[in-house]
Amino acid sequence: MVRAAVLPAVGSPLEIADIDLPEPGPGQVRVKLAAAGVCHSDLSLTNGTMRVPVPAVLGHEGAGTVVSVGDGVTHVAPGDGVVLNWAPSCGSCHACTLGEVWLCANALTGAANIHAKRASDGSDLHPGLNVAAFAEETVVAANCVLPVPDGVPLIDAALLGCAVLTGYGAVHHSARVREGETVAVYGVGGVGLATLQAARIAGASRIIAVDVSPEKEALARAAGATDYVVASETTAREIRGLTDKQGVDVAVECVGRAVTIRTAWESTRRGGRTTVVGIGGKDQQVTFNALEIFHWGRTLSGCVYGNCDPAQDLPVLAEHIREGRLDLSTLVTERIALDGIPAAFDNMVAGKGGRALVVF
After folding, report:
1. What is the separation of C-alpha 64 from the centre of its chain, rounded to a whole number of angstroms?
2. Are 50 and 41 in contact (CB under 8 A)?
3. HSE (CB half, 13 Å, CA atoms) of 233?
4. Mind listing the pLDDT tens digit for each residue in 135-170?
5. Cα 321 from Cα 69, distance rounded (Å)
6. pLDDT averaged over every residue in the chain
């Protein structure tokens, strides 16, 4: 038996419970978790913004050590450190054939599988976003694990599984920030902090962090922000004031709220680019009129998993870490045990802190 954080039903509180994990079958890997990040996407599963089969073991950002492997698994072996990949690409759907593996149509089919059983009553549990990282151990498909790159501590590597890939990819793959450009980042949580670092690595000349909390300014500046704006009705105007009345070249929205998306778009210059990373609900409607779309010539685009291919991007991120350009410690504001996840969710709702990291 292993301890895990279980979501019994949408809208219900998480429960820390004992579960029975099967041994890995063909094409599967059993992993002992070292750490797991508490991401807003996990919160979105609890409130129904994102839907997967329940009851489920949540958690999708994690790293650990391979315990055992099933038949046919050759790219990792017991004792290897691995990063969990919650959205593995199938390689054969239309998006994959176009090279857009982050849009794989089959990436989340594993969420419907039976992952484990609750020890108390034998009821079936699903694996949340494929990997069920909020547990002492997990069993995943072989394509859900990637070797931890050399020089990256195993606990820190957990952050590579979502926050860092997403923030880095938003800057380098989606918005394609060029050296000397100006960037505004909306939302200073785990992904926002990673985005700020990515903008600094890209050589942005001015990096403006925006958040509702004045207390996050020190976090933002440590991650690379040159300026800090407390969100208000005048945010777009303030950002234009910081950029010679032009607006930034790029805005990255990491919140997923209609008003924030609209403000991010308005804070870019004519011809500017806005990338939306935040996951919002269906009730969050963003409106534009036809004339302003023509006049401003701005680009608004969605961004899934940083538009990344983890197999290709993890080695690049590792090189930035080894060279000191990317500091994962600036993302983590709290290290917690498994039973601290509900309180970490409460802090996210309240807009407190950066990334909470479950350390096993």
Report:
1. 18
2. yes
3. 0
4. 999 999 999 999 999 999 999 999 999 999 999 999
5. 29
6. 96
Distance CA 338, CA 290 (A): 49
Q: How many CB atoms lie within 10 A of CB 75?
A: 13
Q: What is the CA angle 79-80-81, rounded to 5?
A: 120
Q: Which amino acid is present at 12?
A: S
- Tens digits of per-residue pLDDT, 112-126? 999 999 999 999 999
Owner of token pair 């991650």: 223
Q: Do the Cβ atoms of 221 and 212 come closer than 8 Å?
A: no
Per-residue model confidence as pLDDT tens digits over 161-217: 999 999 999 999 999 999 999 999 999 999 999 999 999 999 999 999 999 999 999
Which pair of structure tokens corresponds to residue 347?
A: 């802090």
- The helix (run of H) or strand (run of E) holding residue 357 is strand 355-359
Spatial neighbors of 139 by CB under 8 A, at least 6 apart, are: 21, 22, 23, 24, 28, 29, 30, 31, 115, 116
For residues 11-25, average pLDDT? 95
Look at residues 154, 115, 147 and name the one whose alpha carbon lies nearest to residue 28. 115
Closest CA to 309 of 36, 77, 104, 41: 104
Q: What letter would DSSP give residue 126?
A: B
28-38 and 124-125 strand pairing = unpaired
Q: Please give the full DSSP string across 186-208, using - where no structure is assigned.
A: E--SHHHHHHHHHHHHTT-SEEE
In 3-state terms, what secondary structure has residue 263?
Answer: helix
